[in-house]
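input
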Amino acid sequence: MTKQRNVLIVEDDDWLAEQHGRMLQTAGYAVEFAPHALAAMDAVDTRKPDAIVLDLLLAGPNAFTLLHELQSHTDLSDIPVILCTNSADQIADEDIAAYGVRQVLDKAIMHPDDVVSAVKKVLL
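output
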């Protein structure tokens, strides 16, 4: 029997978080939610996720706070991160590669199942 993979969704828009979660659960993933970077750190401490879907602009500390924290721990730095943002065109790959970001999704043009495709891709 294959272990169910766990995905942490860090998104402060409740509706969008629920949409991502529903798509991932339908695809067979276990999903946890965090509305901001501090809650995400607590969630990661409780149960290390297999992947993180992360909104860039969060209320309070932004995504880079979480990314810095993840990279400061050797046991967490290998978690693949998918940034999901309206600012995708302003992000250079070389600026985020060191943070474990494996893919960037543009909220403005993405389809609901793009988050599932991205998670599958980073977990290969």
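quick obs: The chain has one domain: 8-106.
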